[in-house]
Amino acid sequence: MLKIINVTKTYAGAPLLRGISLTINDGEIMCLLGSSGGGKTTLLRIIAGLEPADAGEIFFDDQNMRDAPIHQRGFGLMFQDLALFPHKNVFENVAFGLRMQSASRAEIRARVNEMLELVGLAGFAARDVNNLSGGEQQRVALARSLAPRPRLLMLDEPLGALDRILREQLVADLRAILKRIGTLRAALYVTHDQDEAFAIADRIAIIHAGRIAQIGAAAELYRAPASAFVARFLGMTNLFPARVCADGRVETELGTFVTASEAKQSPSELEIASAQSFDSASLRSGSHLAMTSALIRPDRVRVGASGVPARVEECTFRAGRYRARVVTDRGARLTIEIDRALAIDARVGLEIESVELLPA
Amino acid sequence: MKTHRPALLLPLAFLAAFYVYPLAAILQTSFSGDTRGLAELCADAYYARVLAFTVFQAALSTLLTLVVALPAAYIFARYDFRGARVLRALTTLPFLMPTIVVATAFSALFGPRGSVNLALMQFLQLDQPPIQILNTLWVILLAHTFYNFTIVLRIVGGFWANLDPQVENAARVLGANRARTFLHVTLPLIAPAIVAAALLVFIFDFTSFGVVLILGGPRLATLEVEIYRQTVNLFNLPIAAALSLAQLVCTFALMYVYTRLQARLAQPLRLRPQAIVKRKPQRAREKIFVWGYLTAMLVFLMTPLVSVIAASFEDGSGYYAELFINRRGSIMFVPPMEAVRNSLFFAAITIVLAVGLGLLAAYALVSQSRAARILDPVFMLPLGTSAVTLGFGFILALGNLRASIWLVPIAHALIAFPFVVRSLLPMLRSIQPQLRQAAQILGASPARVWREIDLPIVARAVIVGAVFAFTVSMGEFGATALVARPELPTIPLAIYRFLGQPGLVNFGQALALSTILMVVSAAAIVAMERLRVGESEF
Question: Which of A44, A159, A342, B304 is such that its CA lies 20 to 30 A from the CA of B155?
Answer without folding.
Answer: B304
